[in-house]
Design a protein that fits this description.
six-stranded mixed sheet, elongated, Rossmann fold, 22% strand, 16 helices, 4 domains, five-stranded parallel sheet
Length: 545
């Protein structure tokens, strides 16, 4: 390939001159310089050759019989195939008018005879370079024009879709959050006229979208590149509160970084969903309670004895009925929390006691699964609902145990941190110094003399949050969670594997309930995981003074 490139001529040059000596001299000179040369003695012949195989440059004599150089050049410039070929006149005519005429018919240069070899070579090289650059510029201009047309078409399609979309759409500057454009659907849902929206922020309009929720959504957008189906509240100008799903994408508008916010109003869907779930759950609870009572009587032998096969079938029925009751109770629990019908019974409680109680409650399950529980409680007082926090901890421990292999460990830790909640502890995993080892049904609590202790006795609404947070982690050595499931597992009826509800006995609501409880304590819950190595659930709670 390299040898072929090296042998390729620098350019294809056509020489038209009726004097053989001139042709031989020019042909020899140009060939030695690496050019491909075609020589003809007649203007008509040269014209046909140029049209058949257009050269890169033409050297043209003026005085020739039948068709002189001016006529040849005029016809070359009149033909689209040869219009752009640079023509250099070489003539013995020195009159200024001859030179002017040569440029008038389309020549790019004029060399008088007798010519100097170096001058001819320099001018040829110069005009070939100019021609090459012009072609490059034309190609770039053509590409640019095509890009402009494509962009205009895309912008027209976007503008049409933006205006006609039934979903409310707003474009805001990033990171300022000022509205620069909204579609008619947004104005209709919000109740604001365009003049009151443009240039303002969601906070200015009091749209009710929690700033913390929106900031977390933006953070997720920056980390993952996209955000879809972020549920939040939206307040209209009249004060009506709607439930919406928010999708955000980062775009550039006229050189300015912006966010494309697409809103889907699910208020009516949520109302119907909640009514349906509540109705079905309540209607199912009563007959299931009666069914469970009847099954208990049968298994206890109060209504007669059963065969061994009958006992097995009855045990399966009881297990499935208990699972169904748990599912209904979880649904009702979650719906009451979300609707505000369950209020947190906030009181002063001790974090160490909660962790100890949660560990004791899950010890039997851990023993049965042959999993070690390792806990590190911390003597910190919180203003919280102890029953609900205990429900959260036992739920997280239950999940960790269920998805751990026999012989593996589950860690429950608590510590006070002054940095951002997402900061991670650097303590080596598996370190047992200062921990409580819970194994073979033996439970010990070892509180270190240096344990950090923070006390408060007043409810949060009369005090101020400290820069400290209580961080509780539940870590396992299980199968891990895929990256695309790390967010969705906190939604209702979401599980890593669809078969988990059947194999592990879960309802798919436990983590949704945990998230609701933690959020009602002004805390955060999230998970980090590595497939095949395990998962760590983080719960951070504010500490008040």
């Amino acid at each position: 390939m390299d040898s072929q490139l090296a042998d390729a001529p620098k350019a294809d040059i056509l020489v038209i001159d009726d004097t053989p000596d001139n042709l031989n001299l020019l042909s020899t000179m140009l060939t030695q310089q690496g050019y491909k040369v075609r020589s003809v003695t007649k203007g008509a012949t040269g014209l046909r050759g140029a049209q058949a195989a257009p050269p890169d440059l033409i050297l043209l004599d003026v005085n020739m019989p039948q068709m002189n150089g001016y006529e040849v050049c005029q016809q070359l410039k009149a033909d689209d195939r040869t219009h752009d070929i640079p023509v250099i006149f070489i003539s013995a005519l020195e009159d200024v008018l001859d030179k002017v005429k040569a440029f008038a018919v389309g020549g790019v240069d004029y060399i008088t005879k007798p010519f100097q070899v170096q001058e001819v070579l320099a001018r040829i090289d110069s005009h070939l370079t100019i021609c090459r650059l012009q072609k490059q510029l034309q190609a770039q201009n053509a590409r640019l024009q095509q890009e402009i047309r494509d962009r205009q078409q895309a912008e027209e399609k976007f503008a049409k879709a933006f205006r006609s979309s039934p979903s409310p759409i707003a474009i805001t500057t990033f990171p300022e959050g000022q509205f620069v454009e909204v579609n008619p659907s947004f104005l209709k849902m919000s109740g604001y006229p365009l003049s009151e929206v443009i240039g303002h922020t969601a906070a200015d309009l009091r749209l009710g979208i929690a700033q913390e929720t929106y900031n977390q959504a933006i953070q997720q957008l920056l980390e993952t590149g996209s955000l879809y189906n972020q549920e939040c509240e939206f307040r209209t100008k009249s004060g009506e509160l709607k439930v919406v799903l928010l999708a955000i994408e980062q775009i550039e508008l006229d050189g300015v970084q912006c966010l494309l916010n697409t809103i889907n109003d699910i208020t009516e869907r949520k109302r119907l969903e909640n009514e349906f779930i509540s109705l079905v759950s309540h209607e199912l609870r009563t007959p299931l309670t009666s069914l469970m009572g009847a099954l208990d009587l049968l298994i206890a032998g109060k209504l007669g004895s059963l065969t061994e096969q009958g006992q097995k079938v009855l045990s399966i029925a009881i297990t499935n009925t208990e699972r169904l009751i748990r599912l209904i109770n979880d649904i009702l629990d979650l719906e009451r929390m979300k609707s505000g019908r369950i209020t947190m019974q906030m009181t002063k409680c001790n974090a160490a006691s909660l962790l100890t109680e949660a560990t004791e409650a899950m010890q039997a399950m851990a023993d049965q699964a042959q999993v070690q529980l390792l806990t590190h409680p911390l003597d910190v007082e919180l203003w919280a609902d102890p029953d609900r926090l205990l429900q959260t901890l036992t739920n997280l421990l239950s999940n960790a145990i269920k998805f751990s292999e026999p012989g593996s460990k589950v860690w429950l830790r608590a510590e006070v941190r002054s940095q951002k909640p997402e900061a991670r502890s650097q303590k080596p995993e598996g370190e047992e110094e200062g921990e409580n080892l819970i194994q073979n049904s033996k439970f010990k609590i070892q509180n270190s003399q240096s344990s950090e202790s923070i006390h408060h006795s007043s409810p949060p609404h009369t005090t101020h949050p400290t820069p400290h947070t209580l961080s509780i982690t539940v870590k396992d050595q299980g199968r891990g969670i895929p990256a695309d499931k790390l967010q969705t597992i906190f939604e209702r009826f979401q599980q890593v594997d669809a078969s988990d509800s059947r194999k592990k006995g879960g309802t798919g609501l436990g983590l949704a309930i945990c998230r609701n409880i933690v959020e009602q304590h002004d805390g955060r819950i999230w998970v980090e995981s590595t497939l095949g190595q395990g998962s760590t659930f983080y719960v951070t709670l504010p500490i008040y003074e």
